[in-house]
């Protein structure tokens, strides 16, 4: 049982090191290839997938 | 009556030699009438003590005996004496009289301090057995013990006649053969019947005092009766072993509860896991500090933008910025001047060299007000997001806001390779969870063991009936 925990602890330590080093995060992102080259000159040439996301109309 | 030292209510205790005393269950002190001390007390250097006699409320004075080796309080009114915990034993040692409690003059100064010592030596050589109050049927016993504070001298007998059960408050620890024995229980057994052969006189109705100390799987017991103190040493034997030794058929009955000296099957694994846990705990913190120290934490872009609903194109793009180093995260912080409004930002981090994009969306909303006499607020006027595993290269950010307001201002700051303490806490939590399970198993076993001792372990969750009490 203790051997199992030592293995588990080593795994947690290694995982934490990898996550911190490569900057992994829980952020939900989409990877998109072949973005039009003229986006910098014409920002409207590309619409992000996240456009028109359900939004908050908040307030009490 | 209340304790003169700690003000706790005193308890009346009837001792076997028809002496009634008052003991303090809190500090283990005890009050004796003058007629309950069997030897004359030559108290010297009496001075005002500041304590009040629990019996007659007169002022008590503090004085010394045996050239200052013992200090105690005596009432100048009723002549009663207050003994702090352990002072009765000290009086026995200093006076050389075992029976210091009783009618004045009843003590025999010539009586040996420990009449049981010779018998204990006999026990050591012959490994004879004497039943213990809690040793159980599967304890084999041998030999005498020595107290922790006096390795070579005879064992200090319990103060069986001075107070109710001082062991339950002081929790003494003994050392025998290099092992530490914790006090488990002190009881007052009465012989109801005997079975077997005994090398001392025993009779139904005999009363004694038994103290059990444990260091699983070992048990150390002291039995005191008629001034004799007998120590026995036992070792827990598994039921199967007993069954086999007596060539009994079938299987032993299932265990019920936990015996005082029963080895804890979870102790070893808990100890090993606990040691590993703290090593990994420190390693996680050390690794985080190291990685934080080598992280770039370099700002790569900062810019401010205006949103206006009248603009035909509301999207904006940042200037190109260079992201260097190894694959790491990007921290993007958006700060707005929104006040009781919201905005949603559709964002895309685009690699200028590969035309690949990371699409994501963030919402910023900040509302506040004052209703029914109370102020309230919801949300924040800024947002922070960490983009994972961004490769080095030249990038720009496309930002497309949506909002319910005509115009507002927002600024975007981008920082490369920022360590996140959240993952340190997550790792520590992952390490702790299984450790808690090992701890819980070990504690449950020890809880069951000590439940009927003089030192029960407090339950993790108090029941409602306990609260009512």
Describe this entry's structure for a reader.
The complex is a heterodimer of chains A (60) and B (469). By secondary structure, chain A is mainly alpha-helical. Helices cover 35% and strands 5% of the residues of chain A. The termini of chain A are far apart. Chain B is an alpha+beta fold and 469 residues long. Helix content of chain B is 20%, strand content 35%. In chain B, the strands form four sheets. Chain B has a seven-stranded antiparallel beta sheet. In chain B, helix 5 packs antiparallel against helix 6 (421-450). Chain B starts with 10 loop residues before the first strand and ends with a helix. In chain B, 32% of the residues are buried. Residues 107-163 of chain B have low confidence and may be disordered. Chains A and B meet through helix 1 and strand 1 of A and helix 5, strand 15, strand 17, strand 18 and strand 19 of B.
Give the SSE map:
The complex is a heterodimer of chains A (60) and B (469).
Chain A: H1 2-22, E1 30-32
Chain B: E1 11-15, E2 19-23, E3 30-32, E4 44-52, E5 59-65, E6 70-75, E7 81-83, H1 87-95, H2 117-126, E8 139-141, H3 167-170, E9 173-176, E10 179-187, E11 209-215, E12 218-225, E13 228-236, H4 239-245, H5 267-294, E14 298-308, E15 316-317, E16 321-323, E17 328-336, E18 341-351, E19 357-371, E20 374-380, E21 382-390, E22 393-403, E23 407-416, H6 421-450, H7 464-468
Antiparallel strand pairs in B: 1-2, 2-3, 3-7, 4-5, 5-6, 6-7, 8-13, 9-10, 10-11, 11-12, 12-13, 14-23, 15-22, 16-22, 17-21, 17-23, 18-19, 18-22, 19-20
Helix pairs in contact in B: 5-6
Q: What is this structure, in a nutshell?
A:
The complex is a heterodimer of chains A (60) and B (469). Chain A has one helix and one strand.
Strand order of the largest sheet of chain B: 1-2-3-7-6-5-4
Number of strands of chain B: 23
Which oligomerization state do the chains in this entry correspond to?
Answer: heterodimer
**What order do the SSEs of chain A take from the amino end to the carboxyl end, as H and E?**
HE
Query: On the 0-100 scale, what is the average pLDDT of chain A?
Result: 81
Count of helical regions of chain A: 1
């Amino acid at each position: 049982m203790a051997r199992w925990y030592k293995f588990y602890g080593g795994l947690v330590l290694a995982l934490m090191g990898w996550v911190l080093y490569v900057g992994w995060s829980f952020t939900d992102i989409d990877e998109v290839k072949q973005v039009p080259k003229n986006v910098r000159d014409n920002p409207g040439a590309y619409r992000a997938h996240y456009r028109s996301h359900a939004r908050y109309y908040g307030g009490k | 009556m209340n304790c003169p030292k700690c003000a706790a209510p005193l308890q009346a205790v009837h001792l076997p030699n028809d002496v009634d005393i008052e003991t303090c269950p809190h500090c283990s002190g005890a009050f004796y009438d003058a007629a309950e001390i069997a030897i004359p007390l030559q108290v010297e250097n009496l001075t005002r003590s500041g304590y009040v006699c629990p019996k007659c409320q007169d002022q008590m004075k503090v004085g010394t005996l045996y050239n200052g080796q013992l200090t105690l309080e005596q009432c100048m009114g009723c002549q009663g004496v207050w003994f702090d915990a352990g002072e009765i034993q000290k009086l026995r040692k200093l006076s050389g009289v075992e029976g210091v409690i009783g009618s004045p003059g009843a003590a025999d100064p010539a009586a040996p301090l420990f009449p049981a010592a010779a018998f204990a030596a006999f026990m050591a050589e012959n490994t004879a057995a004497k039943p213990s109050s809690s040793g159980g049927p599967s304890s084999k016993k041998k030999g005498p013990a020595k107290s922790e504070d006096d390795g070579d001298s005879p064992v200090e007998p319990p103060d069986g006649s001075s107070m109710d059960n001082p062991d339950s408050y002081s929790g003494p620890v003994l050392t025998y053969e290099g092992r530490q024995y914790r006090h488990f229980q002190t009881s007052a057994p009465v012989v109801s019947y005997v079975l077997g052969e005994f090398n001392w006189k025993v009779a139904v109705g005999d009363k004694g005092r038994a103290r059990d100390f444990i260091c699983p799987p070992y048990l150390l017991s002291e039995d005191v009766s008629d001034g004799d103190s007998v120590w026995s040493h036992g070792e827990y034997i598994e039921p199967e072993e007993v069954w086999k030794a007596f060539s009994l058929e079938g299987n032993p009955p299932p265990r019920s509860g936990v015996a005082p000296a029963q080895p804890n099957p979870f102790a070893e694994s808990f100890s090993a896991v606990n040691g590993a846990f703290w090593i990994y705990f420190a390693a996680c913190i050390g690794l985080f500090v190291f990685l934080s120290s080598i992280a770039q934490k370099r700002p790569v872009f900062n810019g401010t933008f205006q949103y206006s609903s009248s603009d035909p194109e509301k999207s904006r793009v940042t200037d190109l910025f260079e992201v260097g180093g190894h694959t790491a995260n990007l921290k993007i912080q958006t700060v707005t001047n929104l006040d009781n409004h919201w905005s949603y930002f559709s964002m895309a981090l685009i690699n200028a060299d590969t035309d690949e994009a990371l699409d994501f969306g963030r919402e910023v909303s900040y509302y506040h007000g004052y209703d029914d006499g109370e102020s309230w607020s919801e949300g924040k006027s800024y947002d922070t997001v960490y983009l994972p595993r961004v490769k080095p290269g030249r990038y720009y950010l496309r930002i497309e806001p949506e909002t319910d307001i005509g115009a507002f201002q927002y600024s975007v700051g981008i920082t490369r390779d920022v360590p996140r303490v959240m993952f340190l806490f997550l790792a520590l939590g992952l390490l702790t969870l299984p450790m808690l399970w090992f701890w819980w198993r070990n504690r449950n076993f020890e809880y069951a063991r000590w439940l009927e001792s003089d030192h029960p372990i407090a339950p993790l969750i108090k029941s409602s009936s306990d609260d009512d009490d």
